[in-house]
Q: What sequence folds into this?
């Protein structure tokens, strides 16, 4: 009887932990922080290595299907924007994704990143410093 109770309690705790991290996962519509335009759809997922990533799965601007990352360097240089992994090596801590980086395909630069939810929207903070003081934030909308 005690074993069944412990198993049930452990199952409930594990389910609660999985539920707590699930809202960040999924597809999000990126919104340009300067113009307010919807730019792309990014899918945030957890990889087999336990880290979290975000990949562009669609561009929402007209005639952008063949766009490539000309500003990117290294293995991302001239790669198609659709399919590009822009959020990399994030870890879930206290309901936020932290410790990784975000790629801005417009300029090809990587920034320190933090991702969290606020009022049902996803906030992506990219910054020059690890503390997040020197940077900017974007608000992304859930894709329904």
A:
């Amino acid at each position: 009887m005690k074993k069944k109770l412990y198993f049930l309690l452990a199952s409930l705790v594990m389910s609660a932990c999985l539920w707590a991290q699930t809202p960040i996962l999924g597809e999000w519509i990126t919104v340009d922080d300067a113009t307010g335009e919807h730019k792309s759809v990014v899918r945030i997922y957890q990889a087999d290595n336990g880290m979290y990533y975000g990949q562009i799965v669609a561009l929402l601007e007209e005639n952008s299907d063949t766009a490539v990352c000309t500003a990117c360097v290294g293995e991302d240089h001239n790669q198609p924007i659709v399919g590009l992994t822009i959020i990399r090596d994030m870890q879930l801590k206290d309901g936020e994704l932290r410790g990784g980086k975000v790629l801005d395909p417009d300029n090809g630069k990587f920034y320190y990143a933090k991702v969290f939810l606020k009022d049902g929207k996803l906030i992506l903070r990219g910054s020059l410093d690890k503390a997040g003081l020197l940077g900017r934030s974007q608000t992304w909308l859930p894709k329904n």
About this structure: The radius of gyration is 17 Å. DSSP finds one helix and eight strands in the chain. The first strand starts at residue 26 and ends at 31. The chain has one domain: 25-142.
